[in-house]
Write a sequence for this structure.
C-alpha cells in the first residue's frame, strides 16, 4: 500500500484521537459550567484527570515492543476514544466526566505514541520527511473541527450531551475510514544503541523542557473557550476562538515543516516556539478581546509545531530509540500538563480567576526556552563526542 495513504491515515488518527478524543473537553467547558454540571474549579480537576490518564498511557506505551502490543494499543486507543466520547452523552456531574476524561487521556496517549513511532520512519523510508512532519497537523484540524461543531451546536441551542453525541459520530466515521490503511505495527529493536551523551544529557534535558512546555501551554489550551465565553458573555463569537486556535496550530506545523534543516535549526525553532507561547500566555492576562486574539495566534501557532520539533529533536539525538523516547517525552509532557490544571484549580479556588495560573504558565515557558539557550555549549560538545 502507498506510504502516502498510510501517512494520511496517521494524520486522521491524530485528528480524531487528539482533536476529538482528547481536546473536545475545551469547547464543552462553557456548556458544562452553564448547565450547572461543574464549576471552574471542578473543570480544572476534570482536565487534570485527563492529563493524568495521558501520563499513564504514555508510560505504558514505552513498554510496547512486539508488533501485537503496538497494534493493541493503537487500535485500542482509537476505539476507546470513540466509545468514551459516546459514553459522555449520558454523563452528568463531576465524577462521570472525570472518569471518562481520564480514560480518553490514556487512549489518546497510546495513539499519539504509536502513530509517532510508526509514521515517522515510514515517511523517512519513503523519502518524504516533510509529510511525516505534517502528520502532527492532524490534532490542529481536529481541534478546529470540534470548535466549529461546538459553534454550530451553540447557534442551534443544543445541549452538551447532544454535542458529545455528534463528536462520537464524527470520530466513529473517521475511524472506520482509516482502519484498513493504518501503518502496520512493527517491532521495536530490543538492543538499542544510544550514545551516553544523548541518554544522560540531551534527551533528559529535552524531557525537562517539554514538561515546562506542558505547564505553559495547557492553561490557555484548556480554558480558552471559557475565557472567551466570560469575555463575550456567552455570545456566539466566543466559539470562534477554539477553531481559530486549531487552525493556527495546523498552520504552525506546516511552517515548521518548511524550515531549512541545519545542525541547530530544530533547537532554534524550538526556542522560538517557547518564546511565542510565553507571549501568548501573557497576552491572555489582558482579558480583552484583543488579548484573547493574540493568545490564539501566539499560543496556537507554535502549539503543535513544538510537539513536532521535540519529537524531531529526539530522533536526531537517538534515532534507534524513537518509540521509547516518544513515550518518555510524552510522559514528561503529561506531567507538565497535569500540573497546569491543578494550578488553575488552585488559582480559581483562592482568587476566583486564572490570572495567577497564567503568570506561572508564562514563566514556565520562558524557563524552558532559557534552558535550551544556556545548555547550548554542552549540546555542541556532545555532538562532537558522539
Amino acid at each position: 500500500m502507498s506510504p502516502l495513504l498510510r501517512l494520511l491515515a496517521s494524520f486522521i488518527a491524530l485528528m480524531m484521537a487528539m482533536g476529538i478524543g482528547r481536546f473536545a473537553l475545551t469547547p464543552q467547558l462553557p456548556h458544562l459550567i452553564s448547565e450547572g454540571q461543574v464549576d471552574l474549579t471542578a473543570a480544572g480537576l476534570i482536565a487534570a484527570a485527563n492529563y493524568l490518564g495521558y501520563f499513564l498511557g504514555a508510560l505504558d506505551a514505552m513498554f510496547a515492543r512486539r508488533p501485537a502490543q503496538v497494534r493493541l494499543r493503537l487500535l485500542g486507543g482509537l476505539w476507546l476514544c470513540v466509545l468514551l466520547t459516546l459514553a459522555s452523552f449520558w454523563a452528568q456531574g463531576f465524577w462521570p466526566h472525570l472518569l471518562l476524561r481520564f480514560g480518553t487521556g490514556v487512549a489518546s496517549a497510546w495513539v499519539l505514541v504509536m502513530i509517532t513511532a510508526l509514521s515517522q520512519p515510514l515517511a523517512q523510508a519513503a523519502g518524504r520527511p516533510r509529510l511525516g512532519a505534517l502528520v502532527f497537523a492532524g490534532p490542529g484540524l481536529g481541534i478546529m473541527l470540534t470548535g466549529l461543531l461546538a459553534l454550530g451546536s451553540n447557534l442551534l441551542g443544543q445541549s452538551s450531551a447532544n454535542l458529545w453525541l455528534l463528536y462520537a459520530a464524527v470520530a466513529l466515521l473517521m475511524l472506520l475510514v482509516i482502519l484498513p490503511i493504518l501503518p502496520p505495527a512493527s517491532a521495536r529493536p530490543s538492543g538499542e544503541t544510544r550514545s551516553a551523551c544523548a541518554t544522560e544529557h540531551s534527551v533528559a534535558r529535552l524531557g525537562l523542557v517539554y514538561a515546562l512546555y506542558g505547564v505553559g501551554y495547557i492553561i490557555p489550551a484548556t480554558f480558552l473557550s471559557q475565557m472567551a465565553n466570560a469575555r463575550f458573555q456567552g455570545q456566539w463569537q466566543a466559539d470562534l476562538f477554539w477553531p481559530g486556535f486549531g487552525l493556527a496550530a495546523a498552520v504552525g506545523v506546516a511552517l515548521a515543516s518548511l524550515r531549512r534543516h541545519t545542525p541547530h535549526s530544530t533547537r532554534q525553532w524550538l526556542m522560538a516556539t517557547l518564546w511565542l507561547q510565553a507571549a501568548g500566555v501573557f497576552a491572555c492576562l489582558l482579558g480583552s478581546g484583543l488579548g484573547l486574539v493574540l493568545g490564539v495566534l501566539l499560543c496556537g501557532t507554535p502549539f503543535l509545531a513544538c510537539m513536532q520539533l521535540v519529537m524531531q529533536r529526539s530522533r536526531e539525538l537517538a534515532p534507534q530509540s524513537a518509540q521509547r523516547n516518544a513515550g518518555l517525552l510524552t510522559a514528561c509532557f503529561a506531567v507538565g500538563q497535569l500540573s497546569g490544571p491543578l494550578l488553575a484549580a488552585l488559582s480559581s479556588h483562592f482568587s476566583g480567576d486564572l490570572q495567577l495560573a497564567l503568570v506561572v504558565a508564562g514563566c514556565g515557558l520562558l524557563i524552558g526556552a532559557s534552558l535550551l539557550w544556556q545548555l547550548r555549549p554542552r549540546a555542541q560538545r556532545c555532538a562532537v563526542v558522539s
The domain at 3-181+194-385 is CATH 1.20.1250.20 (Growth Hormone; Chain: A;). The mean pLDDT is 88.
